[in-house]
Every structure is written in C-alpha cells, then in structure tokens.
Amino acid sequence: MPTPLPPSERLEKLFRRRKCWLLAELAHALDYALISVRRLLKQIGYFRSYTHNGKWYTLRDAPEFNREGIWHHKDIGFSKHGSLVATIAYLVARSPNGLSARELADKLQHPCHAVLTNLHKNQVLDRLKVAGEYRYLATDETVNRRQREEVSGLRAEPTASLSTQAAVWVLVEHVKDPALSFGQMAVRLREQRNLDVAPESIERFFQEHDLKKTPGASSSKL
After folding, report:
1. Which long-range contacts (CB under 8 A, 24 or more apart) does 112-121 make?
2. What is the pLDDT of residues 111-162, one digit of tens each?
C-alpha cells in the first residue's frame, strides 16, 4: 500500500492540476477544515486574487507578473502588491502624473470607480479634475507635489481633446451665451462645473466640429 502524501504535497498536487482554486474547493478535495487549508497555504506561500473579492488562491510561484506586478489567469487578477487597494496605491504612486479610473481599469482589467471614490474620501489618494476626468494622485507630499506639477502641464496642453462630458458643457455654455470668448468659457466651466479645460482645447473643439464663434472671441481673451 503506497504511503499517503503529506498534506502540503497533496495541496501542491492540486495546484499542478489547476492554477487557481477557491478555498472551499480545496477543503473539499483534501477533506480538511477551512482553517487547516489556510494554514497549509500559509506554509507553502500563496497569492489571493484582487478580483472576485479575493476569493481565488494561487501558489506563490505560479504567477508570471508583468512589469507592474499584475498577472491574470483567465478573468482572475492577481497582484504581487496584494489587495486591490494596495495595488491601486502602488500604481498611482509610481505614475508621473497620476492615473484616471479609466487608465487604472485598463491596467487592472477590473472596474475600480467605487474603490477610488472611497480611497479619496478616506484621504488615501488625492485627486484633481482635468478636462472632465479625475486623475488620482499619491498623498505622499513629495510625490504629490511632483504629480501636481505634471498635471498642471496636462492642463496647459493646447492640443488636449475634450472629454465627452466637457464637450457637452462647452456646448451648453455656448448656447446660453454665444458671445463668450473661449477664455471666458473656460473660467465659467471651472467655477460653475468644476471642470479644468484649457481655452485652447475649447477653440480646437470648435475648429474640429466647424462651429461658428462670434467675432473677436479668442482663446487669449478673458
């Protein structure tokens, strides 16, 4: 009669069959209590997914992380930085000008609007609105100052395209007062809509869509 494998080897054998397991599945396959499976995983080393509320497990040597420490197995995401919150904080801190929710979702392949809102509310992340879109920044003083300087450069970029939201509000303000200059429109959007849009971007939007402006209205006029 063959000698039974030690529990840790039985667990590793399961992970050789499948890269990712739910804790309950492992407990059933091993006929162990959940607490015993957790103990075994801790001994061997593991990662928990940052997607699916952290329900999926993989062994520590399984992931092939990309440069940012992200690995996906099918639709399950793992991070060498740990949880979704820890991974977002890492990605934001290492970005020169912060990251938007859209950019983070692209990197993580996972929506994170609600998480970002909570992180900002709890002062874990800072944020600025640029052209109708929030950019999330680190709260570390040195990193935050550098990122804000970079974001200021983005705001001043004359060729920046308007977001859909910003374009809608530009048209609303133009209909309300066609005599507004591009500079006046930018000021009004900032004061009334909390949108940071460069006058040059509004001018470019009018040019691209062949919209007529009243004579004398220019980006240099406030």
Report:
1. 112/84, 112/88, 115/84, 115/85, 115/88, 116/88, 119/85, 119/88, 119/89
2. 999 999 999 999 999 998 887 789 999 999 999 999 998 887 665 444 457 7
